[in-house]
Amino acid sequence: MTEAVPVEARRLVKRYGEIVAVDEVDLTVEPGDVFGYLGPNGAGKTTSLRMMLGLIRPSGGSVALFGRDPLVDGARALSGVAGFVEGPRFYPYLSGRRNLRLLADFDDGGSRARIEEVLELVELRDRAKDRVGGYSHGMRQRLGIAASLLRDPRLLLLDEPTTGLDPAGMRDMRELVKRLAGEGITVLLSSHLLSEVEELCNRVAIIRSGRIVFQGPLADLMATASTGYRLQTTDHERARAVCTVQPGLRDVGAEDGVIRFAADEGAVAALTIALGEAGVGITALIPEGASLEELFLGLTEGDRGAEESTALEQTAA
Amino acid sequence: MSAVAKVYKWELIKLTAQKRTYLGLGAAMLVPVAFVVALSLQKGGPNDIPLGRYIRDTGLALPFVVLFFMSFWAFPLITALVAGDIVAAESHNGTLKTILTRSRDRGQVFAGKVLAALTYTVTVVVAMAVVGLAAASVKWGFKPLTSLSGTRIATGHGVALLLGSIAVYILPLAGIACFGLLLSTVTRNSAASVVGTLMFALLMQLLGALPGTEPIQPYLLSTQFSAWHGLLRTPADWVPIVRAVWVCALYVVLRSPVRTSSSCAATSPGSRRPVAPVPTAVSGPEVTLPRRRNGCPRLTGRRLAALAAVLLLAPVLYSYVTTMIQPSSLPLGVRTVEWIRANHGAWIVDEAERFWYSHNGPRAGGPQLTALPTVGLVAPGTPSRPARPPARPHADYAPAPIRPLIRPALPEEGRWQPTSPPFRGSAPVLVTTYRTDPTYPQIVAFVAWFDHTRTQLALYPGRYEPPNALPRGPMEVPSDQRWRLLATFNSGFTFRDGHGGFAVNGRAATPLVAGIGTVVVYRSGRVDVVRWHGGSAPPRRIVLARQNLPLIVAGGRPNPNLSDSAVWGQTLGNAIRVWRSGVGVDRRGNLIYAAANYQTVGTLARILIHAGAVRAVELDINAEWPSLITYPRSGARDPVKIVPNSMQSATRYLVPDDRDFFAVYKRVGAASAVPFR
Q: Are A142 and A127 in contact (CB under 8 A)?
């Protein structure tokens, strides 16, 4: 029996009056993915996650978690799923441990037995007896992860888990996510931080103004981004001559002893051989062009981004 | 443990972990203690309310009395504080989504919350009853209770009845709690829900008190708060209890569909206001965040201030509303003024009246009147014939006409007119009018004369005056006495203002005060106006006594202190020209009543003297109060207003009235008591 995919959203729409917060979002998270849901603030990430968790009713489309629609199956659709949106919230007048006990009682099965274990995991055991009202932001985020892990989930939905944390806190949180992913948990995390997604995720979706502008493996995105190369050689003139005739190279230009061109990886490999045969030594061959960050900005910003995103969408498709 | 039970358990834990919970609980436990302390320090008691008069007989009575008092707004407020908050607070804090992403369905979570809110309500009421019972029993003992039917109830049975009453009392509170939950779920705003729930409860009361709502009254939640009275009757009256059960159940059920449809949408506080998709200014890895609108409704300072203002004003509003919804014979405007006067606002009213009257005094001079208001049984223009039938020589006496003070006199000015057909000779009640002051020729005095041998004077408590009348009686002319009713007139100041006493049939509802002017009736039927020399309780020979300020006429002369304003009570004093009324006796012991507009206490005394009084007291003043009504036909049919008081109807004393009043009957047989039935 093949298991249904952890997250499958189809033509998901959420409207608030005139405003369309989420516009026909299709999203698929495969088992074992660490899926980055990337977009600027206000792009519709949280709204999408809310619909996935069944907290709000979509205006159109559907969501299935492991094949179950939260709107149809209610709490049962969340079996094996855990997470939080807009930062985890707890009862400030109860201790951390009591909050977890409460949530464990709201779960089926053996959550209660795991309380100490997850507290240990997020390094909150020492403070578990204190009231959550006195916790720092980072501690609350970690408690949020602990509360999610109580459910022994197969899928974690985390809404900006590192937001508001200091660099050390961010590092720890990312380590934790990596570790959980390493244990086989599928993770969908939203973020507006590119570096985070780059570090953690194997697949990404980029959302802008409620629309998905890119979805696919991180490597594809990177490949789309890095199409330019910079070449420096021992013999500038001869190298330039080789480049101009070499098949697969585009947009060749040269100035100040540096040759720039665009090519795919195969053409670049062929070029190095051709240069060698021509007796030209390579001192530097550096892939350059738009970094992921520039790409992200391009995808998510303004009209220019809109145009490019159309082009990219076609590329991605 | 079932899922709902687990949710319920944690709801209770959450309630016990929050300070606000103890606020309501503490208040509920303080109120009965405050009652015990207040009743220990004071003499009076809540005699008008169920079991109120037995409050010092046994500790068992107090919880019932407090139940009654707290039903108006205290318990609804305490219930609203928790029920209105229980969903909204979680929505506000975002914890709702924390628990809704676990394995519990919304229905289970909601059920747990409903149970917790109801548990809290029950706890608060029971805590009040336990504390009240304990405190009152320490003070007044744990003794048998007197039921509403007047029978004795053993202490054990009394406790059982208390528990039963609480159970019945919880029903409408549960209805209010469910309304609070509904608001809490729909608005997701604690302040709005708490205030809205309280307003709902108050609105129910208001609705129940409006005229014309009698058909729906049995189906209002507020009415069900008194259903427990049925348990305290012998035999128990189950009708209101059964009705309370199904009415309250209906209120709970009617809200369920709204609840389920809204509970899903209610789970997303932040999503309510969409985060508008705005182009984001991004520069480098540090993203400058556009100011993000927080979707959660926050308790801003302004809202808190508004809430505080509402909560502070709630008792005032409540006091006003409950005063206005109490049964009364007065128009709303008059009662509003009286309410202000009664609630630390006497100075405002006095200042306003002083300002008004000093700018609206009588005009000196002006055109002469061409005719006087017609009074008595004489058609206008026909010369009167003094009623002097010669048949009964002892009833032959009739007062001399009042000498007109302005020449030429108008037709009938000062001439006594009968108000009824002859009784044992002639008409025993005569009325006339005359102009009192050449300087103010517009002023007309209305005067009545009552033959003391053929009439009997009676005094009845009103609905609120005197405050502690026992028994209060019908508050109107008893229907079985109306066949012989001749006239009614107003009594004195309220007892707060007058510093006088009130006694009827041997019992002093308000202690009599020595030195104060007093209308008295003796067992012989003789009526007199005297300066009181006795003690605070009436001696046996006195049938009734009504005191109001010192005598304004004594020995046929005005009281020499009439210009000393301090003596004449808290309101208005002596010098303001307003409607005033007074009553005195003439040389032969007949009663004389007079009322006129634009009078000072001194000019009122002069009117009474001019009409023949040798001793007199002032009665009530201001346009609302003076009333002299005569009844020309037997059975009090066709009452006639002699004093033209536009704010009171001619049937004023044929329906319950707020203030005490005098009635004048034809004297038949022994007149040794004020007839109450």
A: no
What token pair was written down for B588? 């032969």
Which helix (H) or strand (E) segment is A217 a member of? Answer: strand A211-217
Judged by CB atoms closer than 8 Å, whether chains meet at B101 and A89 is answered as: no
SS in 3 state form for B15-52? HHCCHHHHHHHHHHHHHHHHHHHHHHHCCCCCCCCCCH
Interatomic CA distance for residues B207 and B201, integer angstroms: 10
SS3 call for B472: coil
Rounded CA separation B646/B330 (Å): 12
Residue B607 in this model has a pLDDT that exceeds 90: yes
Distance from the Cα of B258 to chain A's closest Cα (Å) equals 17
Choose, out of B10, B103, B262, the residue to mutate when testing the contact with A (most A CBs < 10 Å).
Answer: B103
Q: Following CA atoms B26, B29, B33, B35 in sequence, which dihedral angle do they give, to the nearest 10 degrees?
A: 110
pLDDT (tens digit, 9 = 90+) per residue, B369-381? 888 888 877 544 4
Q: Do B264 and A57 touch (CB under 8 A)?
A: yes
Q: Are the C-beta atoms of B667 and B454 separated by less than 8 Å?
A: yes
- Pull the structure tokens for residue B617: 């007291």
Q: Is the pTM of this model over 0.80?
A: no
The three-state DSSP-derived secondary structure of B353-366 is HHHHHHHCCCCCCC
Which amino acid appears at position B103 of this protein? S
The whole-angstrom separation of Cα B517 and Cα B582 is: 11
Output the CA torsion A105→A106→A109→A111 (10° steps).
-60
Give yes or no for residue B288 having a pLDDT over 70: no
Cα–Cα distance between B373 and B363 in angstroms, integer?
19
Q: Which of residues 428-467 of B touch A (CB under 8 A)?
A: none
> How far apart, in whole angstroms, are the C-alpha atoms of residue A222 and residue A219?
5
Both tokens of B369, joined, read 């009147």
By C-alpha distance, which of B591, B57, B502, B27 is closest to B311? B27
How far, in Å, CA of B66 to CA of B79, rounded?
16
Any idea what the Cα angle at residue A131 is, between residues B308 and B5, rounded to 5°?
85
Asked whether residue B255 carries a pLDDT value surpassing 50, the answer given is yes
